[in-house]
Each structure stands twice: as structure tokens, then as C-alpha cells.
Amino acid sequence: xxxxxxxxxxxxxxxxxxxxxxxxxxxxxxxxxxxxxxxxxxxxxxxxxxxxxxxxxxxxxxxxxxxxxxxxxxxxxxxxxxxxxxxxxxxxxxxxxxxxxxxxxxxxxxxxxxxxxxxxxxxxxxxxxxxxxxxxxxxxxxxxxxxxxxxxxxxxxxxxxxxxxxxxxxxxxxxxxxxxxxxxxxxxxxxxxxxxxxxxxxxxxxxxxxxxxxxxxxxxxxxxxxxxxx
Length: 230
Hints:
Elements: H1 47-61, H2 88-101, H3 106-117, H4 135-141, E1 147-149, E2 155-158, E3 161-164, E4 167-168, H5 175-187, H6 217-223, E5 227-229
Antiparallel strand pairs: 1-5, 2-3, 3-4
Helix pairs in contact: 1-3
């Protein structure tokens, strides 16, 4: 870049957009005091980065597999003449458990990759509401107000699962909460008022308030500042 020499230049008028493919060096200059130049970059992760992040989260998910809690045992292992050699039985058992994990299938990796790609920027700051309302008040507010993602919140859908700011927010939630997250991820708004009752009818019905509790990921996201009132 220290030896950079421009080969072409363009003067953009209001409303113009200049697209530059990757690996093209460039410099934008505002031509007068009333002008601004904006550069928007689109970063694509490498396959190494995706697999590393997916593998790290896959390792965390092993905590949920009770079959892996059993301790390693080798009652059939015979005496070894060379104790420095890794036992063949250990190798066989590890291989068997790795096959059960089906690491060659994308469905094992994609949840972790989805969580990674939904992580907000490092400089993103979320503030809790000035006054944290109760779960019941939160439910009542949804009847008249519209809940939207914070401008720096990231939402991503994989299948029927929703990831928000690096968390699998719809996993192990009530079906209505899962559908609410899908609605937020798709249209970036959620309201249970009369005007939207048909659109969000899946959230209204007998005992519908039960899903709003302190343990609800939707309510927790609101308390964390990830979701705000429009």
C-alpha cells in the first residue's frame, strides 16, 4: 500500500454507488465540506474459521449427551509389554464414539456455525431497560406495543431454530416462543395487538400467558437489551 498508485478514479454524484470487488485497493475522498464518503465492507469468513468455531461449539454441546458421561474403562485390555504405546482398545473406543457424533454431517456443525455467524460486533453495546418490567407486564405490553430487535442485534435462522447474538434462543423453548422468535427473525417485529391478532394468532389462546416467564428466552433478551420496544 505504501507504493499504491491510483489507475482510475470516479466522481460520484448524490445517490451513486461504486462497487469494488474484493482485493481491490481504494481510497475515498470527500470533495467538499458538505460531502461524506461511506465505505461498506462485506467480510467473508474462511472455511478454517467456520470449522474452528463450529468445532468449539460442538465440543460445548457434548455436555448435553449423557452417553458420554460414562468413564473410560478397559477391562478387556491385556497386559502390555510396552507401556509407552497407546492401547489399541482406547483407540477403538474413541473411534466408536467419534462415529456416533457423525462429524462428517453438516447438521452437527451448523448449529455452532449459526451461533457464530449471529454474534454481534465486538463494539456492540446493549443497555438494559431503564426500568425492568415483570414477565406479566412484559406480556401485557406486547398486546399494545411492538417488540423489535436492537439495531445491533443479529438474528439468524437454521431450519426452525433461531440464533440471536450468538445464542440458540429458541432451543428447548415452548413452541409458541419458538414461533415468536421465527417471527422476529423474519420480519423484525412482534406485536400481539388486535391489528396483528390474525398474523400472530399462534401466540394467542388458552393459557397463552404461561410461556412468558423469567425463564423465557424472549423475556431474557428484552432484559438484556437485545430486544426493544419500537
